[in-house]
Amino acid sequence: MTSDSHYNTIEKPSVAEFKDRGSKFIAYAYPISGISNFKERLAALKKEHPKAAHHCFAYRIGTDGNNFRVSDDGEPSGSAGRPILGQIDSKQVTNVVIIVVRYFGGTLLGVPGLIHAYKTATALAFDENSIIQQPILINCRLQFDYTQMNDVMKIVKQYECVIQKQETQLFCLLEMGVPKSKMEEVLNKMKDLRGVEVEKF
Question: What is the 3-state secondary structure (H, E, C) of the chain?
């Protein structure tokens, strides 16, 4: 799932549909960066599918394997969220949420049928996607004088750091994610610039 410096995730949002005895299961896969990201996705799908019987989901976030959640959203316990998470884990990806929207077709599928349907819909959503490697980022906060902006930005670009927040006044504040594998080099380069303060957070 993860190495020291990289983790696997999905490239883009994807959607797939599975039908069984009149019930329709629409699986939406999204790459996400955090829980607020997931909440936005879920709220948007509930708005888009207000008449659906269930909005079941599973997500896994972060690289330590401890941040995950499953929801059966009214389906029998263990019949939806767990099978969805099982598919996420079988692909060894993280920073991913799968939300499966179910429209009830009038025939009860039973727990084995539901497990199969949620698992299959999720697998199909993965089939519509690609798995990519992303660098593990370490968050840093930089403070520096405006005159050093160009030097700082050169290092940011050179080491493929990801800017998360930027405040530019006379004194600049920059929050960014630094690829873990390049952390030491970036810190050394920033130290070479006089008056640049760096802290991890």
Answer: CECCCEEEEECCCEEEEEEECCEEEEEEEEECCCHHHHHHHHHHHHHHCCCCCEEEEEEEECCCCCEEEEECCCCCCCCCHHHHHHHHHHCCCCCEEEEEEEECCCCCCHHHHHHHHHHHHHHHHHHCCCEEEEECEEEEEEEEEHHHHHHHHHHHHHCCCEEEEEECCCEEEEEEEEEHHHHHHHHHHHHHCCCCEEEEC
Number of domains within the chain: 2
User: How confident is the model over 67-93, as pLDDT tens digits?
Assistant: 999 999 999 999 999 999 999 999 999
Tokens 């299961």, located at residue: 25
CATH number at residue 174: 3.30.70.240
**Residue 16 pLDDT:** 98
Do 171 and 190 fall into the same domain? yes
- In percent, the amount of the chain with pLDDT more than 90 equals 91
Tens digit of pLDDT for each residue in 118-144? 999 999 999 999 999 999 999 999 999
pLDDT of residue 4 exceeding 90: no
80 and 165 belong to one structural domain = no
In terms of residue numbers, what domain contains 90? 6-133
Tokens of 194: 């006089």
Q: What is the CA radius of gyration of the chain?
A: 21
